[in-house]
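Q: I have 203 residues here and want to know how they pack in 3D. Can you give me a structure?
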Amino acid sequence: MTHAAGSTGAPATALPALIVLGLDDGGKAHASWFGEADVGMAERAAGMMGMAALSVASDDDLHELAGRLPQGRVFESGRAFVPFVKRTLYDTLATHLPPGYQFPVRAADDRPPPRPKKKASATSAPESAPTRPEPHRPTDWSKIEVGSLVLATTGAYEGWFEATVTKISPEGIYTLRWRDWLEEPAFTRKLIHIALLHPDHRD
């Protein structure tokens, strides 16, 4: 993405110099590449987020793999936007980590706040774990509504990422928030700058 508000942007002509990869708390795979100008910031962000950083410099295999990854983005907060990737691609990347590599410990302020524990009572029945509601995935642009999960980008050379519609103005301006980076500010798009997910797409 080039300029979600609050982010730094690498030139569109940037070439992969570093790959950041890791698993989130749910075990989902994340990976992306960063250009030479963002290497230092991306390495620091990787450490903060508990992810690994691989230099692409002299490894032809990593150059090829980087070409199959989305470009990442370093934010002014010090964190980085590292999108989801297929687990098979992540596993291939992970083979380039040193033997016995230990991922850095994620910074405390990068962890989600713990949920308060409910005290169990003798009469209470076991509760099933809450399920995440399925987002609305419109199959046509005319069906986009508040709460819909769509795709947005911020530049011709950037990837498309999931975003949630939070407001639709009478003038046809859509207010969105990135689904996977909620601390980033909301942004607006016209309908012609919004894409739809495939109906069968599931995370």
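Q: Anything worth noting?
A: The longest strand covers residues 16-23. The chain has two domains: 16-109, 141-193.
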